[in-house]
UniProtKB/TrEMBL annotation:
<keyword id="KW-0547">Nucleotide-binding</keyword>
<keyword id="KW-0813">Transport</keyword>
<dbReference type="GO" id="GO:0005524">
    <property type="term" value="F:ATP binding"/>
</dbReference>
<dbReference type="InterPro" id="IPR003593">
    <property type="entry name" value="AAA+_ATPase"/>
</dbReference>
<dbReference type="Pfam" id="PF00005">
    <property type="entry name" value="ABC_tran"/>
</dbReference>
<dbReference type="InterPro" id="IPR027417">
    <property type="entry name" value="P-loop_NTPase"/>
</dbReference>
<keyword id="KW-0067">ATP-binding</keyword>
<dbReference type="InterPro" id="IPR003439">
    <property type="entry name" value="ABC_transporter-like_ATP-bd"/>
</dbReference>
<dbReference type="InterPro" id="IPR051782">
    <property type="entry name" value="ABC_Transporter_VariousFunc"/>
</dbReference>
<dbReference type="GO" id="GO:0016887">
    <property type="term" value="F:ATP hydrolysis activity"/>
</dbReference>
<feature type="domain" description="ABC transporter">
    <location>
        <begin position="6"/>
        <end position="233"/>
    </location>
</feature>
<protein>
    <submittedName>
        <fullName>ATP-binding cassette domain-containing protein</fullName>
    </submittedName>
</protein>
<dbReference type="InterPro" id="IPR017871">
    <property type="entry name" value="ABC_transporter-like_CS"/>
</dbReference>
Amino acid sequence: MVQMAIELRNVRKERRNKTIGPLTLNLPQGYITALVGQNGSGKSTLLHMLLQLTNPEEGEIHWFENKHESGLPLELRQAIAYVPEISLTEENHWTTMDAARFRSHWYPLWDNAYLEELLTKFEVPRNLTLGRMSKGERRKFEIAAALAACPSLLLLDEPSSGLDPFAWKMMIEMLTRYMDKSNATIIMSTHNVEEVRRLADYIVLMHQGQVLGMAEKDSLFGLWSEVWIHANDEEELADLAAELPGSVHFAMETPGVASFITQQFQQIEERIHSLGVKVIKSRSLELDEILSLWTQGHRPILIDQMRGV
Ligand SMILES: Nc1ncnc2c1ncn2[C@@H]1O[C@H](COP(=O)(O)OP(=O)(O)OP(=O)(O)O)[C@@H](O)[C@H]1O
């Protein structure tokens, strides 16, 4: 049975201008979960609650099956690494090596050789203070230092922000390799669909402070299709739409050709043929298109099968 790294039960956090939650989520141990959603949807707030940088007004959070209402115990804090959205200014006057030395005292599993390897790959300047680094250089240091702590739980808030494409690819490789050699759990917020595609095992979609759902990433591929058909006019298309509940975005493309979007096309293709409608072609939607439909309220059918996770 899959163990949970994090469980949230009806967690509610009041922010000045909105309520985050109630959130109920189970995030499995040993996997990468991507938190996706528009600006202000509550991704960073959720990460902050997992670090107890801020606490919910209501609800319960469990870390590896334990509640810690009076503060995270030392050994758990030492097993969590965090790359914040904005780096801490308190460390600005430190060089890479000063910051590494400080962290090595804090994290019992700190691996200095691993840090050296990652800094070299990332080409992070060693003797510059963190405050003088470019945004991307600082980000690379933060990611390398988070991995060198060998955490069981790695929380990443938009890790690729500021990375050039070469560094981004390297980060993907580093995170993948780390997951291969450990039983760590990564929870990352991201706006980068390619990052989700390459890294995530699970996707949590947030929207306006709510969780719209959680899905196994692979289950989403091939789920939605755009289909082009022969249709004489709007009226004929409306008749077809009425026969295909759950299909959306019916539109006349050119005279005689219409399109629509549907889930599990293979299962309804026969039905379309039996209605005397000729299919011209179809294509599977990309992940970003699926996430956008989901945000609009078109929930993936398979998501209800994920309830047990
Ligand atoms: N310290 C705070 N005090 C008051 N409101 C806050 C605070 N931090 C965040 N908020 C508000 O809470 C909401 C959620 O913010 P949050 O930073 O969690 O969103 P996000 O999904 O991470 O956004 P983004 O993608 O832009 O980083 C926003 O409306 C934001 O204005």
